[in-house]
């Protein structure tokens, strides 16, 4: 079965194409005709052009927007690397369906529909859990054994891909990524340390408010787990299965599924950016479909975005998770696209066009 999941994953990723350069060039040409100072919207202009390349057209709109929230538990919580227990994951996951979390309120303002997914929570939540999406009931303790099997990691990635493709078919043309899972900054730091070949201490933060003692314990646990399992940095599935999490794997699939469907996917914070890095390592062409949102308050958040060659739109020192940063960036993208599409051109307002100098 492991080979079947991997074979299917390989087949699907081979169909992913890079950004459509002619559409990006056409978008840049149109920006130069818009009746405002050249390049004056900065990153928002870049974002509009990037989305044109993803969508393969310079004439597009942002319609329905979806936030995919991967929910999963991590066995490493047993090592005291968090302030709270696994039961919080299920509580928050259910609250997503009750409009009772921070990102729910933010998403309502931004016009984004929420799709929480139980890809690996320790407990089922009736309003969230679907057997076809749930890979296992939480990962193993990475200090004692591998987080999951290679087959389970591949299945989780494919699950994320399938969900992204399904939503695109339902008319969503902008996807945002989020997660919920106590202990997932530990697994994300482990994965990032391996993939970026960086010292664990540099890649590990306090998560949801650990004390200095707790942070030191977290660093020690990650370091020992990596030493024990020796994940291969050249093999993303090996890294995910040994020291990763199901939420990371599922989001990796969302980025791949968005790329396959020619749909922009917004990166949220640290956990989401690590998943984006995994997706880019699995299929470099998929990186063209990724859009940054914010710079995470976690110390390694900026490092991962730098590795992806992406500069965040906003920097609010946020570390909430849930997709909150990705949702916060949505109105900015819509504002940039509104100017691009609806503002009069220099010809229409009878003003000489700006000259472009080196």
Q: Can you give a write-up of this model?
A:
Helices cover 49% and strands 9% of the residues. The chain has helices at residues 2-13, 21-33, 43-55, 87-96, 102-110, 150-169, 184-196, 200-203, 212-229, 236-243, 246-260, 270-282, 301-308, 324-342, and strands spanning 64-72, 112-120, 172-180, 265-266, 290-291. Strand 4 (265-266), helix 12 (270-282) and strand 5 (290-291) form a beta-alpha-beta unit. Helix 7 packs across helix 12 (270-282) and helix 11 (246-260) crosses helix 12 (270-282). By secondary structure, the protein is of the alpha/beta class. The protein is globular. A five-stranded parallel beta sheet has the order 2-1-3-4-5, sandwiched between helices. The mean pLDDT is 95. The protein has 14 helices and five strands. The N and C termini lie far apart (56 Å).
Structure at a glance:
The protein is α/β, with parallel strands linked by helices. Helices cover 49% and strands 9% of the residues.
Q: What is the number of strand segments?
A: 5
Shape: globular
Uncertain regions: pLDDT < 50 for 5+ in a row? none
Largest sheet: 5 strands, parallel
Please compute the radius of gyration using only Cα atoms: 20 Å
Mean pLDDT: 95
What fraction of the residues are assigned to beta strands by DSSP? Answer: 5-15%
Main β-sheet, spatial strand arrangement: 2-1-3-4-5
N-end to C-end Cα span: 56 Å
Helix content: 40-55%
Topology as H/E string?
A: HHHEHHEHEHHHHHEHEHH
Structural class category = alpha/beta
Give the number of helices.
Answer: 14
